[in-house]
Amino acid sequence: MTPITEVEGRRVALSNLEKVLYPESGFTKAELLHYYATTAGALLPHLRDRAVSFLRYPDGPGGQLFFTKNVPPGTPEWVTTAEVPRSSPDSPARMVVVQDLPSLVWAANLVAEFHTHQWLVRCPEEADRLVFDLDPGPPAHIVHCCEVALWLRERLAADGIEAYPKTAGSKGLHLLAAVRGSSSERTSEYAKALAVEAERALPRLVVHRMTKSLRPGKVFVDWSQNAARKTTATPYTVRARPAPLVSAPVTWQEIADCRNPAQLEFRADDIAPRLADHGDLMAPLLDPESAARLP
């Protein structure tokens, strides 16, 4: 029998709570749900008013992985959904919008990574986030990403844009900034221009093209996630990796001090102490006053 729990007045069905999702650490589905419930205060503001894509891994990262973008069958009627544009205006999609704790717990029961666009559902024609995904090609690793991130931070600051870093929760880094007054197309153009500039400034370290043959030993500065259709892992989401790694906000001091990839590897159990010490390091992204206009 599927257990039913009440979350803020909503009845939420939970399933397979004892299932071990991460065999290396024995991390169970119940622990995953507990993580999301206790991290909701920091996570929910980054999900709210954004259409969510789910990368689902119901049998753990070693099982089948599949993206769910449309509203899943069986979604409770009290979960907010929104119609969002696709490449064709005649065929919009309807996607989940995680607005509250009951919706978050329901979504976490699907066992999924949370991925969101760089725009809000009420204004899909305007980007409110600028993002760079720094992806190292082995033997490069996250320490090399840190060097690139520091360069991008200074370059963005020269244009009046403040960037905030987080781990990808896999092998690289994400840089996010709050922007306003630009379309996704314009934001993509700006991000690409900076990626090209970074390659010119750091030619032995950076590549801005996706061509795989160019990437070994370099950091791919992926600017393409600014496209309207693209999504990026949400801050604090647990990733479908061999261990329950989290896409965790970090300080610029941690970026500057990183000498070993393990220094920027955070698991679900690490996040509560970090929130107690730092609060939500990406909270400034939620303040409209912090949003910058692109030059």
UniProtKB/TrEMBL annotation:
Record-listed E.C. numbers: 6.5.1.1
Principal EC category: ligase
InterPro entries: LigD_pol_dom (IPR014145), MtLigD_Pol-like (IPR033649), NHEJ_LigD (IPR052171)
Keywords, sorted A to Z: Ligase
UniProt keyword Ligase, yes or no: yes
Origin: domain of life: Bacteria
Ligase is among the record's keywords: yes
A Pfam family it matches: LigD_Prim-Pol
Molecular function in Gene Ontology: DNA ligase (ATP) activity
Annotated DNA ligase D polymerase domain residues: 28-281
UniProt cross-references to PANTHER family, sorted A to Z: BIFUNCTIONAL NON-HOMOLOGOUS END JOINING PROTEIN LIGD (PTHR42705)
Name of the molecule in the record: Non-homologous end-joining DNA ligase
Lineage: Bacteria, Bacillati, Actinomycetota, Actinomycetes, Kitasatosporales
